[in-house]
Amino acid sequence: MSQRVFITGGASGLGRALAEAYARDGAKICIGDINLDRCAETLAALKALGTEAHALRCNVTVEADLEAAATWLQANWGGVDLVFNNAGVADAGGIDEMPIADWQWMIDINLLGVVRGCKAFVPMLKAQHSGHLVNIASMAGLIHPPMMSAYNATKAAVVALSETLQAELHPHGIRVSVVCPAFFRTNLAESVRTANADMARLTAKLINKSAIGADQIAAAVKAAVARGDFHVLTHPKERRIWLFKRAVPFAVYAAAMRRQMAKMMAKRTSRA
After folding, report:
1. What is residue 257's three-state secondary structure?
2. Is pLDDT above 90 for 183?
């Protein structure tokens, strides 16, 4: 039986790369996205790969949209095997630079969007006694670089949510994974909000100049999900930083973060 896959933010970036990776294996793909033009483009690409595919308008800030997606999958494909809570946005800047409205925007999409996706699909997965939730977080949820407090906080919360759910849902036959990539080439820079021009340039540079693209991340995620990995860490360098953080006294790690902050501020001052 073909795998049935649902992906939020599935019309572009990592979401589209995941959709195409699973489509090549013959999976049925349902993508949810707010960009209907990109949905149409991605749907055509998926069908060209010879798979059964469907697109839904899905805003992860609207609980009813996720519930409607779950209802569609149950009615049309008899359920779902993989749910990727992938949709997300980015923000950057110092704590005194970011308005509370930006924090609320980030929380509503990056954290509550994942919560809504889990809540909408868990009843179906429990009834099936099978399925896999894959929550897309970030290495920023594990190693917390400076000048990214809202982004770090929401992604750390997704890691915490996922750790909770992997224990909570295991008795029901439901697996959980949390994906923590570092920067890779994607369209995430389109969504970045920041009042700090230096951070906007730096974020765009880190994304656009990365040696790793969305297709490579999708392949690594697909392999890890097939193995049943919980933590999916796609970047070796950042994985080593996380292991360093876990191994040394916090004061050592904090000093390293302060040095990074000093370098960022020095660059910022030199442009002033």
Report:
1. helix
2. no
Q: Which two tokens stand for residue 141?
A: 């949820």
Question: Choosing from 22, 151, 183, 184, which is the catalytic residue?
Answer: 151
pLDDT, one tens digit per residue, over 206-260 is 555 656 889 999 999 999 999 999 999 998 888 898 898 899 898 888 888 888 7
For 160, residues 6+ apart whose C-beta sits below 8 A from its C-beta are none
Report residue 35: phi and psi, to 5°. -95, 100
Would you state the pLDDT for residue 93?
86
| Predicted local distance difference test score (pLDDT) of residue 187 | 57
Looking at residue 34, the DSSP 8-state letter turns out to be: S
Average pLDDT over residues 28-54: 97
What's the confidence (pLDDT) of residue 133? 98
Task: Output the CA–CA distances (angstroms, integers) from residue 187 to 20, 110, 116, 183, 217, in the order listed.
Answer: 16, 16, 23, 11, 14
* 4-242 classified as CATH 3.40.50.300: no
Q: Is 22 a residue of the active site? A: no
Question: pTM for the complete prediction?
Answer: 0.88
SS (H, E, C) 129-195: CCCEEEEECCCHHHHCCCCEHHHHHHHHHHHHHHHHHHHHHHHHCCEEEEECCCCCECCHHHHCECC
pLDDT band with cut points at 50, 70 and 90 for residue 272: very low
- Token readout for 137 is 């977080």
Q: Which residues contact 267 (CB under 8 A, 6 or more apart)?
A: 198
Contact 82, 131 (CB under 8 A): yes
